[in-house]
Amino acid sequence: MFISRRQILAAIAAISSAMVLGKTKLAASQNKRATFVLVHGAWHGGWCWKKVKHLLQAVGHNVYTPSLMGMGEHVNMLSPQIDLNTHIQNIVALLEYEDLRDVILIGHSYAGMLITGVAEKVRPRLAQLVYLDAFLPENGKSLMEYWNNPNVDVLVQTQGDGWRVPWTDELFTLEDFGVVDPVDLAWMTPRMGDHPYKTFTQAVQFSQKSVTSLQRTYIQTSEIPFLIEAGQRAKKQGFRYYELLSAQHNAMVTQPQELTEILLNLI
After folding, report:
1. Is 109 a catalytic residue?
2. Engineering a disulfide at 247: which of 81, 103, 146, 255 sits with its beta carbon 3.0 to 4.6 angstroms away?
3. Quick one: pLDDT at residue 32?
4. In 3D, which of 126, 121, 122 has the Cα closest to residue 34?
5. Burial letters 254-263, b for 16+ CB under 10 A, else e
């Protein structure tokens, strides 16, 4: 049977990734088959976890990377009706329909809001909450109460038809998130999309017991002021705390190997 050069290189790359992980003290985690659900932040989609997903799967773990309604491959469903509860229910439905249990639920950036809400609804299905450079909400607060940026509302009204937060360099660029590699920029740029504004303005409601009864971790990867504040609160609340500041905000793209090692360490 003929094996192409591309197939050989792909096999070598997969083996190399597994070998690198296996050389660390985290190799023991390969004997514990964990279930990870990785939830993307604003303007992204499940696609942004591609590198980390492959690394986790290479050492035998179950990995789900859903795209929230209106995001990623579900961009055709973007609408003014989508709010924070919609996105919370997206993840709740995944956990229930796939019958997932003992889940390590990871939320990046905006998704810190919704994984907190998910814990309120399906606490028995979860093992851990992991906030990856993410908002860490307090009960009854919305994302905009932490990110107090008046330009957001202006852009929503002028460029987002009154209900979308546009992906525009007037707010952020991929370079602001630490993405500078030309290959990564070419991959990400056409996939970034507008975000439903109601998810930013709706408050999350939860009981302290639903979250404090879970193992919680905060992974700080940037020096964005409102996320530094979230990380400091996490430390005060007894979270496990990791820093990977060299990765900057989009660590799953810029330093997937290093981020994966931290995630394996949580098992």
Report:
1. yes
2. 255
3. 81
4. 126
5. bbbeebbbbb
Q: What's the rounded Cα separation, in Å, for the pair 163 and 153?
A: 9
Which of the following is catalytic: 17, 29, 67, 109? 109
Kindly state the tokens that stand for 198.
């109601």
Count the neighbouring beta carbons within 10 Å of the beta carbon of residue 110: 24
Q: Which amino acid is at 154?
A: V
Q: Which of 44, 10, 21 is nearest to 257 (CA)?
A: 21
3-class state of residue 190 by DSSP: helix
Report the DSSP pairing between strands 240-243 and 215-220.
Answer: parallel
CA torsion through residues 23, 53, 190, 115, sign: negative
- Determine the topology of domain 5-265 in CATH: Rossmann fold (3.40.50)
**For residue range 15-60, what is the model confidence (pLDDT) as tens digits?**
455 555 555 444 544 568 999 999 999 999 999 999 999 999 999 9
CA dist 109 and 249 (Å) reads: 8
Could you state, in order of their start, the residue ranges of all structural domains in the chain? 5-265
A 10 A CB-CB count for 73 gives: 11
